[in-house]
Amino acid sequence: MRGKSVEDRRLIDLLDPVAEAAGYEIVRVRLTGAAGGGRRLQIMAERGDGGMAVEDCARLARACGEVLDAADAIDGAYTLEVSSAGIDRPLTRLKDFTDWQGHEAKLELDRLAEGRKRFKGELAGVEGEAVAINLEGEEATALIPFDWIVEARLVVTDALMRHGAAARAARLASEAPDSSPAAPASPPAPRSPKTPSTHRTTKS
Length: 204
Fold this sequence. Notes:
The protein is built from four helices and nine strands; from the N terminus they run αββαβαβββββαβ. The protein is of the alpha+beta class. A hairpin with a 2-residue loop joins strand 4 (104-113) and strand 5. Helix 1 packs across helix 2 (54-71). It is globular and about 55 Å long.
């Protein structure tokens, strides 16, 4: 799920080591547009703690841009966009379903399961190579093979917004100088799901 096309997966293989060396993990890669025309390469990434500030996006964009140019990986002009995953993030790796256990998600499969392809419910972790999810209106926890999932995304809920606010506040506190006095303030609001941290660069 991190890449849809053969090109996406080829770019993931090329850029994964670059991201890891810089201290990031690639969540998803999408290359869109016609070859030889105005193409757009979108890279969603995060730090190990789940954060991804604008400065992180710019740093990773520079590192990836250098490797892409050196490898001549994309024909013609293209725009490189590096962003955070956003609060309604896609779930692209098996570990994501464990990390976001207890939150609601929507899943889309590549085949019918119990007469449907789309499911919504509360994530309940993983069992082996299967995603566990408590589906709406059903008592038993369903197990869906990870390989069957073509799209998965968190659903924005009050609980997810509170989680995002608390996580961001914790990151800000950990980044503050030790000498700074603690200020009694409310946790900062999480970023809007439509405005994740983003850095764009146009390559010719």
